[in-house]
Amino acid sequence: MHDLILEIADDLAQGCLMSEYDPYHDEGWVLKYVKAHACK
Q1: 1-40: per-residue pLDDT in tens?
Q2: How many domains does the chain have?
Q3: CA atoms within 13 A on the CB side of 14
Q4: Structural domain for 6, as ranges
């Protein structure tokens, strides 16, 4: 779990630039965190 925790911490430290009020879209972030439950 150490590697997973470090990966999530790195992602949070870099931050997600997406916002409901901004047109920027990061498909990698969406697939990894928003739609992750659909992959199981």
Answers
A1: 999 999 889 888 887 777 788 888 888 888 888 887 765 5
A2: 1
A3: 9
A4: 2-39
